[in-house]
From TrEMBL:
It comes from Durusdinium trenchii. This is Tryptophanase (L-tryptophan indole-lyase) (TNase). Keywords: Lyase, Pyridoxal phosphate. Residues 60-426 form the Aromatic amino acid beta-eliminating lyase/threonine aldolase domain. SUPFAM superfamilies: PLP-dependent transferases. PANTHER family: BETA-ELIMINATING LYASE-LIKE PROTEIN-RELATED (PTHR32325), TRYPTOPHANASE (PTHR32325:SF4). The lineage of its organism: Eukaryota, Sar, Alveolata, Dinophyceae, Suessiales. NCBIfam families: PRK13238.1. Its cofactor is pyridoxal 5'-phosphate. Belongs to the beta-eliminating lyase family.
């Protein structure tokens, strides 16, 4: 994957190709269902990609959550996992890694990010409270609202415009944050959240300058400030690449600087924890942490394991540090950009600039003949599957209903899992599907069965015309 020479790749001595900075040590067979088998599988699944089995999929880009490959070091760490119920050595290794990166003293392990959110908002949320963020991730919003509080998204204007090339489209609108807190009253804002990178906005980063500005507003109103830190390492890399004052810093130094501005964080270790499961809640305040631990014992587990096995905590302790390796981050950002270039050269518009963990294809631009009511992004996602066995995820009217602002297909990048040739293949599949789209050979869908909440997971659809063989 050629790119402009990166200083971090001085090790490559002037060669332009950013290679995967790992060798493959164990492999998993990729299934190769035929096109006929794929059509049959998706028909049986009610034209819902969530209904497929992994054997039905050739390249799975449904999500980057928990789908990455662990390193030999992480697997070795798992063998050292200490399954002691109370006071496990693995907990202390985990706590030390989180502390080294975040500086937070109070480290509470949970089974996933959403468990950390549920515990935090059970304590800080409640009726009448307002919790601002750049953009709440869907589980975060759901947990805020379940507590009775209101979740407010205050991302900068550019963050809502797909074609805007702003380098930090995840930034909080600082004036809007100030206005929001002064209007509802600081006593009704128990915490300000900031998602790094901004997942729902396309994996767009937040600048260190913006993080500091959020801190200043929180100081002015004496409101605590938490990061939703799921992709903190990718965010640190974008800061290094795009924020001139940080260019000389290591990703670890930048992560330290990001967390130094905050009072706490929620984290899904399934993202930049480089693990297949896990999460944590970390903070400065011992009093709030004590209340969180009371809830933790109720539903997750004893405070030195939360919802995790000792071996999970070992894997996360190692994974968190590996996520900050500049060679890894350079390769990660480069491979996402590489896939984006493939889509662009196939004439498929994408959300810009390319974020950290996924490429978002703009279905409404490619399929102007399919109206919103017929789910153009789902039509595109289904065509990528039927034509090439590539599974992405619809992020549009099927997921959000009438309030959807865009019709996108997200191709998420599992960490350290696919190679450049896999991405070349995905690029070819995109090309073939784009040609079909331009020939108006793709058609819309209608819903035949749906549930009231988060319908996209279980909805059943029907093509409006028979899918062309
Ligand atoms: C994945 C994610 C979560 C939730 O984490 P889970 O481990 O899936 O429960 C929260 N916030 C963001 C930004 C995420 O990407």
């Amino acid at each position: 994957m050629a790119m402009a020479f990166e200083p971090e790749h001085a090790a490559l001595q002037g060669f332009k190709t950013i290679i995967e900075p790992f060798r493959i040590h164990s492999t998993q067979q990729i299934p190769f269902p035929t096109r006929e088998e794929r059509l049959e599988a998706i028909r049986k699944a009610g034209w819902n990609l969530f209904g497929l089995r992994s054997e039905d999929v050739i390249i799975d880009m449904l999500t980057d959550s928990g789908t990455g490959a662990m390193s030999a070091r992480q697997w070795a760490g798992m063998m050292e996992g200490d399954e002691t119920y109370a006071g496990s050595r693995s907990y202390y290794a985990f706590r030390d890694a989180v502390h080294e990166i975040t500086g937070f003293q109070e480290v509470i392990p949970t089974h996933q990010g959403r468990a950390a959110e549920r515990i935090l908002f059970s304590i800080l949320g409640g009726k009448g409270k307002v919790i601002p963020s750049n953009t709440h991730f869907d589980t975060t919003r759901a947990n805020v609202e379940y507590s009775g509080a209101k979740a407010v998204d205050l991302v900068i204007q550019e963050g809502r415009i797909p074609s805007s090339e702003h380098p930090f489209k995840g930034n909080m609108d600082i004036a809007a944050l100030d206005k929001c807190i002064s209007e509802v009253g600081a006593e009704n804002v128990p915490v300000v959240m900031l998602t790094v990178t901004n997942n729902s906005g396309g994996g767009q980063p937040v600048s260190l300058e913006n993080i500091r500005a959020v801190r200043a507003v929180c100081d002015k109103y004496k409101v605590p400030f938490f990061l939703d830190a799921c992709r903190f390492a990718e965010n640190a890399w974008f800061i290094k690449m795009r924020e001139a004052s940080c260019a000389h810093m290591t990703p670890m130094e930048i992560a330290n600087a990001m967390f130094a501005q905050a009072d706490g964080c929620t984290m899904s270790a399934k993202k930049d924890g480089m693990a297949n499961i896990g999460g944590f809640l970390a903070m400065k305040c011992p009093e709030v942490a004590a209340r969180c631990r009371d809830l933790l014992i109720l539903t997750e587990g004893f405070p030195t394991y939360g919802g995790l096995a000792g071996y999970d905590m070992e894997a996360i302790a190692i994974g968190l540090r590996e996520a900050l390796d500049p060679l890894y981050l350079c390769y990660r950002a480069r491979s996402t950009a590489y896939l984006a270039e493939k889509a662009t050269s196939a004439g498929v518009p994408i959300m810009k600039p390319v974020g950290g963990h996924a490429v978002y294809l703009d279905a409404s631009a490619l399929l102007p003949h399919i109206p919103r009511e017929e789910f153009p992004a789902q039509a595109l996602a289904l065509a990528l599957y039927v034509e090439g066995g590539v599974r992405g995820c619809e992020i549009g009217s099927l997921m959000f209903g009438d309030v959807a602002k865009m019709e996108l297909v997200r191709l998420a990048m599992p960490r350290r899992t696919y190679t450049q040739s896999h991405l070349d293949y995905v690029g070819e599949v995109i090309e073939r599907v784009a040609a079909k789209a331009r020939a108006k050979e793709l058609n819309g869908y209608r819903i035949v069965e749906q549930s009231q909440w988060l319908r996209h997971f279980t909805v059943k659809l029907e093509p409006l015309q028979a899918y062309k063989l």
